Structures are given as structure tokens and as C-alpha cells.
């Protein structure tokens, strides 16, 4: 069983919150579903793309999930739901020229028992957090991540690189945007944190770890992380979902 907390904020500089998220904690199959999206593409397009992605992903995933599914089958189901979300965004863009350049990142978690399937496209992230530390599970589809992989810059330099917001994959923008999936074992008392780059770009991994494990209670944890993001200028929308295995 999972306990879930959520937070989404416009930040300090944006005129609109183009992030979106959804959670499903009482699914008939016993799964807990969470998804976070960071929209982009014009004054209206970003919020449309992220909303379509969240709605399509959760609806289509719930249609195909069964209680008997293995983790590998849940991976396939999640990837399938992501592809349908991508198609839905592309269709909406074709029907309305105003939305032609819209797109969105996506990161999701599907938890059942001791295992969590995580899926992502773009640079929204999933972290595993426990008493022993914090580990980023997903890999950003971004220019700076590619540069880090090639040894051109360090991970710390990537946090402040002028091209840090350039992503290499996004739903809607790519007709065949491929998602990555990961499997994470989750023990009682451990956490999964999903977030947009509005959080991960302003709050360090160690700050996340401290607030989740030692900061003073789960009910206010995401508010404390938001406060740190705002203390760093919060130039983007800030959205997060925190999941704890009971």
C-alpha cells in the first residue's frame, strides 16, 4: 500500500502553470499510478499537451492493467499508454494550428507490491529515496545529459549549463517518441519522488534527501522543497509527487 503527496506551483517567473499530474491510489487491480508532465510550446500549447498526456496515459493504462501482470508486462503496458498519449497530442496539434509546436515530458510510476515500474520521456525525473540515500532512476533525454555521458561536462556543470533546458525527446514533438522504463524494488518506509525540472533544476539531490528523510514530516515535505526552489528563484513551474510504501 502506498501513501501519496502532491504539489504543483507556478513558480516565480512563469505566467501560467503548464505542468500537470495525476494519481490513482485505489485502482481495482491494486496498483498505485502516478504521472507528472511538463508541457511546452507556446502560451496555450504546453498546458494542453501536459493535460492530454496525463489524462490519456492514466485512462489507457487503467484499461489494460490486470492484477496478475508481471513487472515486465506492466512495463509494456506503461510504454503502450505513453505511445497513445503521444498520438493523442499529435492529433490535437494537427486539428488546431495554435497547438502545432506543443509537447510535453512525462514521468510515471506504477506500484504494486514491492516493485515499481518507472517510465519517462524528456527530463522530468524519478528518484528512489531511503535512509541509505537518494538515487535518480530515470535518465534525462536532454542535450546536457548526453554531454555528461560523453565526458564533455560534469553532472554539476550540467545543472548550470546554458543548454540545460534543451531536451532531445518529448511527447507530441516526436511522432515516435520512445520512452524508457525501469524497475525499482521498494521496501516499507522507502519513497519514490517524481518531479519536473522546475524542482530538480533548483533543489539538489542532497536537499531532496534531507527533506524527505529528516526534514520534519511527509505532509509538509513537498512544501519545504517548493520553498527551497523559490529561494533559488523558481524560474519554472514546480511539480512533484511523493510516494511512500506503507
Question: How would you describe the overall organization of this protein?
Answer:
The structure is a single chain. This protein has a single domain (2-245), classed as 4-Layer Sandwich (Phosphatase 2c, domain 1), CATH 3.60.40. It is built from 7 helices and 11 strands. The model has no long low-confidence stretch (mean pLDDT 93). The protein has 246 residues and is α+β, with helices and mostly antiparallel strands. The strands form 2 sheets. Strands 2, 3, 4, 5, 6 and 9 form a 6-stranded antiparallel β-sheet that branches. Strands 1-11-10-7-8 form a 5-stranded antiparallel β-sheet.
Can you give keywords for this protein?
Phosphatase 2c, domain 1, globular, 7 helices, 11 strands, 28% strand, six-stranded antiparallel β-sheet, 33% helix, five-stranded antiparallel β-sheet, alpha+beta, 246 residues, single chain
Give the class from helix and strand content and strand pairing: alpha+beta
Q: Could you say what the CATH architecture is?
A: 4-Layer Sandwich
**What is the rounded Rg?**
17 Å
Q: What kind of oligomer do you see?
A: single chain
Strand content: 25-35%
What letter string, H or E per element, gives the SSE order? EEEHHEEEEEHHEEHHHE
Instruction: Point out poorly predicted stretches.
Output: none
* Beginning-to-end CA distance, first to last residue: 6 Å
How many DSSP helices? Answer: 7
Q: How many beta-strand elements?
A: 11
Domains counted in the coordinates: how many?
A: 1
Here the CATH topology equals Phosphatase 2c, domain 1
- How would you name the CATH homologous superfamily? PPM-type phosphatase domain
Query: In CATH's first tier, which class applies?
Result: Alpha Beta
Largest sheet: 6 strands, antiparallel
Average pLDDT rating: 93
Helical content stands at 25-40%
Shape, principal axes of CA atoms: globular
Amino acid at each position: 500500500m502506498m501513501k501519496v503527496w502532491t504539489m504543483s506551483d507556478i513558480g516565480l517567473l512563469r505566467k501560467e502553470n503548464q505542468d500537470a499530474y495525476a494519481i490513482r491510489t485505489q485502482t481495482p487491480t491494486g496498483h498505485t499510478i502516478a504521472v507528472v508532465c511538463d508541457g511546452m510550446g507556446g502560451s496555450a500549447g504546453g498546458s494542453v499537451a501536459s493535460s492530454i498526456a496525463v489524462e490519456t496515459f492514466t485512462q489507457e493504462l487503467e484499461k489494460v492493467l490486470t492484477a496478475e501482470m508481471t513487472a515486465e508486462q506492466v512495463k509494456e503496458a506503461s510504454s503502450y499508454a505513453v505511445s497513445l498519449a503521444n498520438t493523442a497530442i499529435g492529433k490535437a496539434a494537427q486539428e488546431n494550428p495554435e497547438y502545432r509546436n506543443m509537447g510535453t515530458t512525462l514521468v510515471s510510476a506504477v506500484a504494486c507490491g514491492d516493485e515499481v515500474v518507472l517510465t519517462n520521456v524528456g527530463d522530468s525525473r524519478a528518484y528512489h529515496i531511503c535512509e541509505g540515500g537518494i538515487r535518480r532512476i530515470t535518465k534525462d533525454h536532454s542535450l546536457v545529459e548526453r554531454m555528461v555521458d560523453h565526458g564533455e561536462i560534469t553532472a554539476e556543470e550540467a545543472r548550470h549549463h546554458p543548454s540545460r533546458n534543451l531536451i532531445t525527446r518529448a511527447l507530441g514533438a516526436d511522432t515516435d517518441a520512445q520512452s524508457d522504463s525501469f524497475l525499482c524494488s521498494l521496501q516499507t518506509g522507502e519513497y519514490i519522488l517524481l518531479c519536473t525540472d522546475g524542482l530538480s533544476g533548483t533543489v539538489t539531490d542532497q536537499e531532496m534527501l534531507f527533506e524527505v528523510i529528516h526534514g520534519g514530516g511527509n505532509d509538509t515535505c513537498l512544501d519545504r522543497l517548493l520553498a527551497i526552489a523559490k529561494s533559488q528563484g523558481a524560474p519554472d513551474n514546480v511539480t512533484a509527487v511523493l510516494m511512500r510504501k506503507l
